[in-house]
Amino acid sequence: MIDIKNLSSNQRFLLNILVPSLYLLPLVFAYLGPKNFGFGYDELVYTGLSVGVVGVILWILAMLTLGPSLAVLPGTDRLVTRGVYRYLRHPVYVGIVLTLSGLFLACGSVICLVYVFAVVVPLNIFRARTEEQVLREQLGEAYQQYCDTTFF
């Protein structure tokens, strides 16, 4: 795991730029690359768009619920347990995966779907584990109790 506390300000800045860029990259490719909407099946276009909309809604609700606690790098002084955080510890990450997967299913982009499962999902799992380690150190037993009552 990366020790967030020992990162220099330049390293923190680079991570704050790099991580969101990894989510943007497949969007650029999907926009510029060839499209095979729904892989030739209209139902997959609508299914993908529906999954994407659910992801965007979850992502936005999570960000609104976090408010000033929202950050790329982990760390907080308080535990957020209201809204979607009542059920999910990482709704932003789930929302990102649903949004990108739905969009790329609708676009019919195999390479972008592979990117989501080869890069975005592992990145989000790594981020979640790192975040949970930091939050356990900062918030102690209260965070562990929260983990016991929520899903990913």
Highlighted features:
mainly alpha; globular; single chain; 152 residues; Four Helix Bundle (Hemerythrin (Met), subunit A)
| Residue share in helix | 55-70%
How many domains? 1
Indicate the mean pLDDT. Answer: 89
* Helix/strand class: mainly alpha
The end-to-end distance, rounded to whole angstroms, is 18 Å
Low-confidence stretches: none
What CATH first level would be assigned? Mainly Alpha
The number of helices is: 5
- Write the CATH fold name: Four Helix Bundle (Hemerythrin (Met), subunit A)
Question: How much strand content do the residues show?
Answer: under 5%
Task: State the major sheet.
Answer: none
CATH architectural type = Up-down Bundle
Using only C-alpha atoms, the radius of gyration works out to: 17 Å
**Would you count the extended β strands for me?**
0
Order of helices and strands: HHHHH
| Inertia-based shape | globular
Provide a concise account of the structure shown.
This protein has helices at residues 9-32, 42-66, 91-107, 110-139, 141-148.
Describe, in plain words, how this protein is organized in 3D:
The protein is mainly alpha-helical. The protein has a single domain, classed as Up-down Bundle (Four Helix Bundle (Hemerythrin (Met), subunit A)), CATH 1.20.120. Helix content is 68%, strand content 0%. The protein has five helices and no strands. It has helices spanning 9-32, 42-66, 91-107, 110-139, 141-148. Helix 1 (9-32) runs antiparallel to helix 4 (110-139). It is globular and about 50 Å long.
Question: Which helices and strands, and how do they pair?
Answer:
Elements: H1 9-32, H2 42-66, H3 91-107, H4 110-139, H5 141-148
